[in-house]
Design goal:
Helices cover about 50% and strands about 10% of the residues. By secondary structure, it is α/β, with parallel strands linked by helices.
């Protein structure tokens, strides 16, 4: 049923896209020459010259949409993800159109402004249409219609995680009918979803029911059954997915290599392991830190004077931290506490009302001004503008034994700000939660992700409510 519904929806969307592409192209001509201008001037091609392009334009755009997966099901894709996919397809289409009109077809002066209006107008109309369709489908699924009925094969941590996500996103329209498992007693429930039978009942269940999908969620100890479960599903023509029970080990975005026909799964994808990406990030760090040093130099000078004149001791405080590839380095801050012995300094994090913090220190910690000298750490290459915050060696030794995947954060340079920090995880907050955000950043790094974090820092990252 879902397959039929999806097929009908895709055909409807193709038809509507064709109408939008053709309609907005003609409308762009009318806007240019009858609204923005009073009428077409001398030498302007008539509307019929643009209309003759419509078959080529519509066919090319629809082919590009198919090639860029615009029509693939979007149940679990966020709205912004879908619109980003649509934007990329339209940019591709615009490029083909420009090459065709101004590179291949000669002697016909098509107006560039019409093409520009068409790009903006078609993108806006198509985006509105998709948002409307998404809203309608969401409402239909929340009311219990257009459901995708799923059978889970295997009771495991991955099965529970799968069910958790479906419960949190009812707009996906997923309905887990039940679970098959050999170890967990029949009748056992997880949020109302029951274990229906043993694994050997799979073929009978498929033949007696109309499942839209079978998701294999076997626990690690039951992977001996995996091949047989897949064979049964494929023999009966049911769509099959595999939800591995090792998500706590493997990243959310593992990638495969083809080793002469043998699929090799890389446990973790770190975009910054690519030399080109590292070079881009390093150039941004150098330029960004130089710019930061220049514009904040008056603030740093005033802070240095205040620290020096209000308490005894050096202006800067250096502390050993663990950085890139686990190598130690000295991280610099403006001193915000009274001078301590080495043993006192190792006692622990600053707590609320900590008597070691000076009055000026309390202010510069709260506003993150004490972190500004780290711009010089960035310039020297020990740190980056964006990345996981570095910790002291004694805490690294402690956390790497207590928190899974903690040491992965050292595969990139530590940062002045980071994804965890702009999401409020600074100071006296959960280390485990911080690591989750750090790992997400490491596995999903892009140049634009860094820019986003830097912008967010200006709005959320300077005032630290957890700094004491």
């Amino acid at each position: 049923m879902i397959k039929n519904n999806q097929s009908v929806l895709n055909k409807l969307m193709v038809l509507i896209d064709a109408l939008i592409i053709g309609g907005t192209f003609v409308l762009s001509y009318l806007i240019k020459f009858y609204i923005l201008e009073s009428e077409p001037g001398v030498g302007v091609l008539p509307l019929r010259s643009y209309v003759t392009l419509l078959p080529f334009l519509i066919v090319v755009y629809l082919i590009i949409y198919l090639m860029t997966n615009v029509y693939t099901p979007k149940r679990t894709t966020g709205m912004w993800g879908e619109l980003w996919m649509l934007l990329r397809a339209n940019i591709f289409g615009l490029g083909v159109l420009i090459i065709a009109l101004f590179g291949v077809i000669h002697g016909r002066p098509y107006a560039r402004s019409v093409i520009a209006i068409f790009f903006v107008l078609s993108m806006c109309v198509e985006s509105f249409f998709r948002i409307m369709i998404r809203s309608i489908l969401r409402r239909i699924r929340l009311n219990g219609y257009n459901k995708k009925h799923i059978l889970l094969v295997g009771y495991s941590r991955s099965a529970e995680a799968y069910i958790d996500r479906i419960r949190m996103n009812p707009e996906w329209g997923y309905n887990v009918v039940g679970i098959l498992d050999n170890e967990v007693p029949i009748g056992t429930e997880y949020y109302g979803i029951k274990v229906l039978d043993k694994l050997d009942a799979l073929e009978k269940m498929i033949q007696e029911n109309s499942f839209d999908e079978v998701s294999i969620t076997l626990s690690l100890k039951d992977y001996d059954f995996f091949e047989n479960m897949v064979n049964i599903c494929e023999k009966n023509g049911v769509h099959t997915k595999f939800v591995p029970d090792y998500n706590s080990i493997v990243s959310s975005k593992p990638y495969t290599e083809d080793l002469d026909g043998l699929a090799v799964v890389n446990i973790r994808f770190v975009p910054l392991s690519n030399a080109g990406n590292r070079l881009i990030k390093r150039l941004v760090d150098i330029l960004g830190s130089l710019f930061g040093i220049i514009i904040t130099s008056p603030i740093m000078l005033i802070t240095a004077l205040l620290v020096k004149t209000t308490s005894k001791g050096p202006v800067l405080f250096k502390q050993e931290r663990v950085g890139y590839h686990g190598k130690n380095f000295n991280m610099y801050k403006f001193r915000s506490m009274r001078v301590q012995t080495a043993d006192e300094e190792k006692k622990g994090w600053t707590t609320k009302g900590d008597p070691r913090v000076t009055p000026i220190g309390r202010f510069i910690r709260k506003t993150s001004i004490d972190e500004l000298p780290q711009l010089f750490n960035i310039l020297s290459g020990d740190m980056s503008l964006v990345g996981p915050r570095p910790e002291r060696p004694q805490y690294v030794e402690k956390f790497k034994e207590e928190i899974p995947r903690y040491m992965v954060k050292h595969q990139v340079r530590p940062g002045l700000t980071g994804w965890a920090q702009v999401n409020g995880l600074r100071g006296d907050t959960s280390i485990k939660k911080r690591i989750e955000y750090d790992l997400y950043y490491i596995e999903n790094w892009t140049f634009f992700f860094d820019i986003k974090i830097i912008i967010m820092t200006f709005f959320t990252g300077f005032i630290n409510k957890n700094a004491y």
